[in-house]
Amino acid sequence: MVSNTLFWLYLINSVLLIDHEIDSAYWEEWNIFKLPGGITGFLLIHIPVLFFVLYGLVLVFQQSYTGLIFSLILSFSGLFAFTAHMYFIKKGREEFKTPMSMFILSATLVVSIIQLVLTVKQLFNI
């Protein structure tokens, strides 16, 4: 039952983070983080990132140990996304302040925390 729940949490978090990355392209996030290459570099970076996010979903579905590691990484990615964007918002940046952007970031935070707790419990058989 826990593994099934973890699969769905991973899937939901993946969708939220991918949706956030679509939002990030709209806000030209490469300028916020000073990434080189503009939209081309941003899209190229996301090819392996999205591959690993989706590959992790397969591994979680297969209930492998590596899937749990991917689940930890995705959970921390969600926590980082929320924290980094809140930092920039508090510094006065206007990006990501729309209701939908805030909803995606907030939902990502909640799902990431739940996913992290469940993953740690499963990793350590708690």
From TrEMBL:
Q: Where are the transmembrane segments?
A: 41-61, 68-88, 100-120
Superkingdom of this protein's organism: Archaea
The record's listing under Pfam families reads: DUF6713
UniProt keyword annotations, A-Z: Membrane, Transmembrane, Transmembrane helix
Q: What is this protein called?
A: Uncharacterized protein
Organism encoding this protein: Methanolobus profundi
Question: What is the phylogenetic placement of the source species in the record?
Answer: Archaea, Methanobacteriati, Methanobacteriota, Stenosarchaea group, Methanomicrobia
